[in-house]
Each structure stands twice: as structure tokens, then as C-alpha cells.
């Protein structure tokens, strides 16, 4: 399914996690999470805020200790072998975490020195990104645009040639253009055999990864290649377009055979409860029902499901507010 | 003047020598859901600040709900609602306390407030946890509550700044249903977002690039005339040249 | 009106629910007032008295006994001449001295005036005056008892003005002020620096690197030591130029001691901020750990010997207490390392203990 791209003789996996659990007071951030990442893979964690992505990453980069379970990164235990492991990890935390009052060059120089190397020595390695930043060498990090900050942070995470790179929501809050550029940059590093682990709330970014894990409320909903995940959807998915989207949505909700109907951009994604019924028949049923409610011009076409469709199907319901345990307010 | 529109003509804002908003002209119609898109630093936040009465323009004209942004900023604040991703509710107060606070700020009569409060909490399914601190609620619920609170005083126009950032896909859609409901009831909604599929939910959208409006129209129109399949691609087409420009040291 | 009431209510909720700040706001003034009350004692106790008695006789012996019997004084030396007095004051062995005129008893019995010189250490003019008054009262009581006519005992107050020629209280106060300023700034600097990294998120990246806690701590402290050097110089400069505090001793020694003191405070700043990631909390903690003890218990304002025993014990661990002794000694009395080596060792030991403690309590992870 996945091919390690010749990252040396290490036959062992880049990450092996088993039964990982982490609690913060009453809140369970991670619950029995297990998965593995092969060397050279680009592995993505897809999930919204609060799913547990940051907690998971922090455990893997040795910043937190799990309450239960084991985590081995590059063959080393993330709890007991933290000092050895830290030398080989590149980490970009969720928010901008470089020194705002230092310049681009000063930041990079600092991180190089902390790992016992210099910019000059590693120039070739980081050139793809650094070349885009060099024009701003003197500028303070605080004065950089959002996209530039991301690039600098990536640079600093890579300058010491880590064997594995953890990027926690690198594209969050960044516009579409910068997002694309970022992924293009990552692709170039992948070619060097670097294992990259990314987390993102944007479901469409799943297709940029070799394999993904869908994560929600501290649990993994699925772990596989994006393609395999979409193929596991199980039902036929229909794209329904209509003139009045909102009214159509309400109407379809009233249709007795509706399993799910959600707005997706211009269309509505619809699944039917009757798994054996043919797609054509279902389409007819819908058009007839809509017409009976005064809605015409309904087009119903089967379509391949997206990661988001699968995520929502596996999620079940939206997260509920916590039980009365959290009576914090006066 | 009873009016739920936004009109801006040659609206400009300078910060020293930097032109954040460069003479934009656009209109948001009554009851519309208008998507206000743009890259970070393109000027979106500045425009919103000017329209919500938080910042005076340097030049140009604008009216919000019929009020002039230069002379009637206080009147504007009474007639609009605002919700941003960064902040909208006090984490250490309960849902109920937050609602009451805003009810007081907007001078809603007591029995009417109570009625609206109960309705809102029930609609959102928060009655059971109304006394829990908002900070303890999951993000999606917080956002939905924040939106409802922004609509509490029945404003004519509501500004939403990246309201669904980081929220799970199901809750996001529930959120947009709340937006549709509001729009159906006649409220004009101006929303900014980084989710390009949400742009499709809007009646019309505009895309800001380097302080100017590069495109404005319905999603379908814009995609067709640019020959692209998705708003995402349209965005890249428009915004990329500008970001290259910025990278060359202009910013 | 509703809006205003709503706002007021909201602000109350914020205050009541921020337990940490509330604790400090309520607790701090109470502690300060209690300490203030306990430390302020204008009555004098345990005063070290030196006696100069060139010709001891029944009268002088009687008076010496009386001094001892009051419980206010503790006789630390009896000598025939006043030669040792300089040394006794310089080393803080004596705080007040009484010198009887030669043939004291004889003069009195002949009906002549007999002179008593009373020396007080002018580095503490306030206490000096109280001590003088006590001595005077003992002597006058004796005078009355003997039925001597008033004025038979000629009591002449003298002040050892060598150490404090102008008797300006700035000389007393400013060394203490130096201590308080240096300690607050130093502790704040490191506390803020550490928590700022935590707040901006850069600490997270630092932690994931191979950097060890001791490296991070040394890295944090070192530049502030350099700044500390400059602080000591500037505070010293102000003391000399603006307040005209004399400088009898070695500037080099003062600077070194100052930097040692700053090192202690820097380490204290690291220690108090190890457990918190909020700059605001760190500021409060640093201030409480330095300002409060230094103000109240270092001997800056209230003499230590006048404090209740329990507080005297506590003042032993206040670094400023030792530093003030050192500064006063160097600047006002001109002593060298040989006199203040004990205080110096204590400060050095404190620095060592605090550095080790802060390294241990520095978290290598986020939790």
C-alpha cells in the first residue's frame, strides 16, 4: 500500500503508536489511539479543532507524557528516550513560534546553532525554501506576512536535517494561495525521503498525503490511503443541484428515505437509506418528491465521495456539550 | 431610514504611506448572504472595521443600514451584530450570563429578553448547560451560541469574521443553517471565510486582492467567466500574482 | 442603564472567577500589614553596648550593672580607652558606647560634674537617638536615686560621625534602596523572559530541541548578569552623585558583591516562574518573592534586632538582608572582604542553592 522511498536501511517504522490515551482533568483528549507510519511517508491527520491532533503531536515530539499506551518514533520511545529523539525531530507547532523580534536570518541562525550546525553547512538542504526568504533576511519575523512566517518556521524546523518532520496545522488561517505553495514546498522535501507528519482541519488536503488518519474527539475514525477511505463509503453518494438550495435542503430532509443530506458548496450531498435500490431509481424518487413540493429543476447525479463525506458519515453526530461535570460557572 | 444594505463608494484607508484599502466600491443588498473573501493582509479586516464603525475611512463614502460611517458610527453599532473567530463571548461567564450581558448592552426589554433567551437556548440544545462556563463548551457550540448572541437584538446586518474556523464539518453546516435562517428572516449577512466551499453558500461574493476588489458577483457567474471549476481555483488565479508581487519586497 | 449594570456585573464575575489574582489582591495587603505591624517597633532591645572605663570604681561598676540590668543593653566590651571603639563600631560589634570620665566616682563624691560620653553609630540615626535616650534615662535615674543635684552627671552625647559625617538619612537609606531595586529588577527580568517564551510559544520549540535545562537557564541568566553590572554601576552613580553617599571602600568589591546579589535574584526569578506560563502571574510571583521580604525583613526600614524572634529567623533567608550589610560596610564604613566574607559566602551559597533548585524544577516537557 505504501512504499518507503529508500530512506536508508531502516526497515523499522517511523512511528508506532499503540493504545495512546491522554487526559486533561475531566477531558479525554486521546482515547486508545493506535497507528503506524512508514519511513518516507507523508502522513496526514485530518480533523477539526479539539479532535486531539495537537495533543497527539506533542506526545510524539516528547513534550507530553501519555497516561496510557506507547509511542515509538524512529525506533525510540518518546517518553524514556526523549533526549536522543529530540535531535532527529523537526517540529512546527500550531501557532507561530519563532522570535518576533529577531530577523529571518537571526532566527534561522539560532535554531541551527541549537542543533550544533550552521546555516552555511545546511544551505543546500533548505535552499528550496530559504531562497524565497533570503530577500527578507534582515526583516523582523513579526513584520513578515502569514505565508512568509510559515515558510520561515518550516525552514527552522528543517535546518538540522531531521529524519522526521511534525507539522501541526501549518496551513490553518492561511489563504488558499499560501496553502498551495506550502504543499508544493513539502513535496520537494518528500523526495529526499523525509517522513512528514501533518495535521490539518482542511479535508481537501487529505489528497496530498500518502495515507491519512481521520481523527475526531480523541479517536481515529479511519486510517488508510485517501483513495481507500473514500472507497469505503459504502453507499452511493448523490450530488443534488437546484435553484433554491435552502428550500431543497429542507424538502429533502422531509423525504422519508433520506439517510443524510448536507450542503456542500454549490450542491447538496445526499445518501439514501435503501442500499439495494438502483441509483437511477433513487434519482427518480427524489425528483418526483421535490416536484410534489413545488420544486422543479432538480438534478440528481451519483458522484464519488470525498474525504469530508466519509468523515461526516463516520463522525455520527456533532459533539455534544459536556455533562454537568463542568459546573464551573457561578 | 429602514434599510438593511451596505453601500461603499471609493472607500479608502491609509496607514501612513501604506494603502490598506484602495478605493473600493461595492454594495450588499438587503437580506443577502455576502461572502467577503481575500488573502490575509488583503484588506478585509480593515474594510470590516470601517463598516462596523470601529475605524474611520481616509477617503470615500459608505453607509451601513442607512447610516453614514463618518457621522453616525454609534447608530451603526446599534443596528449591527458582530461575531469574530477570535472573540465573541466571555469564557468565564456562563451561556446565560453572556446572553443577559448582551441583552443589557443592547437594551432589550426584560421579558422580551427572557423569551428570546429561552428560545435561543432551546434551539441550540443548550438549555441543560446554560449555567456552565462558555469556556467549557466544545468549539462548535461556542460558535453557534456566539452567532445567536450576535443576532439577539435582531440587527439588520450582521458581520461574521471567519466564524467556522476549526469547527468540525457537521457543526459547520449547522452553523450555516443558522445563517440561512437569519437571512430568510431578512437579516443581511456579511461573512468572511477561508473555506472556499463556504463561499459557494453565499448569494454573492467578492474577492479582495491587495486592497482592491478583484472580482464580485455570484459564485456561478464568477466561475463561468474565469473558466474554473471551483472558487478555490478562482481565488488562486486572482491572488497568486499579488502574492508573488508581495514576495518581491513590496509589502 | 441596563447596559451599565450588565457591564458592572460582568466585571465582578471576572474578578471573582480569576482565583489567582484574587488571592494575591486579598492576601498581599494582609500579609504586608501584618508584617508591617510586627516589624515596626520603635522600642529598642538587645542593643550592644561598649563601655570605656579608664578608672573603674564603685560608681562606674554600679552604673555598668544598671545598664546590663535593664535588659535593653548587652555589654559587649569593657576597655580602659576608646581606642577599640572604631573597630567595634566598624565591625558592628557595638551599636552604642558609653565612656566614663577618668576618676568618675571621685569627681561625683567631691561634688564636681562627672562627664559621660555617649557614642552612637550614626549609620542608624533613628535608632541612635532612641539608644541615646535609653542611656540617658539610666544615668538620670541613678542621678536621682543618689539624690545628686541635677546636672551632677554631665551627659554628653557624641556621635561617631566618622561613618556618617553628614548624618543624612540618605546614607542609611540608599544602600538599602540599592538592594531593593536590584533584586526586584533582576527577579522580574528572568521571570518575564521565561514566561514570555512560554506565552509566545517559542518555548515549545526550544523544549523539543536537544537543549538541556541548565543550558537554557545559563543562557537566560548570563546576559542579565551583564546588565546587572551596568545596573549596579548606575545605582551606585546615582547614590554618589545625587545623594552624596560616601564611598569609603573599594568600588571593585562593591560591583562584585552587587553582581553576586543579582545572581541570587536572577535565580530566584527563574525559580518562581518555573511553574507558570503566564507573564502576569510571573510578575506577581517575582514581586512577592522579592519586594515584600526585602521591604519588611531585610533591615532596610526596620532594625532586625527589634523584630520578634520568629521574623528574625525568617530574615536570615532574605538575601537583601546580607547584601545591605555588605553595602553599608563597604560604602559607609570602608571595610574590605575580610570583614564581610561571611555575608558574601552566604550570598554565594544562596545563589548555588537557587540555581540548582531552578534547574531541577525546570520542566523538560510541557507538563
Give the second-level CATH assignment, the architecture of the largest domain in chain A: 3-Layer(aba) Sandwich
Structural class of chain A: alpha/beta
Rg of chain B computed from alpha carbons, rounded to a whole number of angstroms: 19 Å
Assign the structural class of chain B, choosing from mainly alpha, mainly beta, alpha/beta, alpha+beta, or little secondary structure.
alpha/beta
Count every beta strand of chain B, where a strand is a DSSP E run of 2 or more residues: 10
Would you identify the regions of chain A where 5 or more consecutive residues have pLDDT less than 50? 1-10, 323-330
- Number of spatially distinct domains of chain A: 2
* SSE run of chain A: EEEHEEHEHHHEHEEEHEHEEHEH
Q: What is the subunit arrangement here? A: heterotrimer
Measured by DSSP, the beta-strand proportion of chain A falls in 25-35%
Model regions low in confidence, pLDDT < 50 over at least 5 residues of chain B:
247-251
Question: Which percent range describes the beta-strand content of chain B?
Answer: 15-25%
Helix content of chain B: 40-55%
Terminal residue distance of chain A: 54 Å
Identify the CATH class of the largest domain in chain A. Answer: Alpha Beta
Averaging pLDDT over every residue of chain A, what do you get? 88
Biggest sheet of chain B, open or closed, and with what strands and sense? 6 strands, mixed
Largest sheet of chain A: 6 strands, mixed
Helix content of chain A: 25-40%
**CATH H-level name of the largest domain in chain A... which superfamily?**
P-loop containing nucleotide triphosphate hydrolases
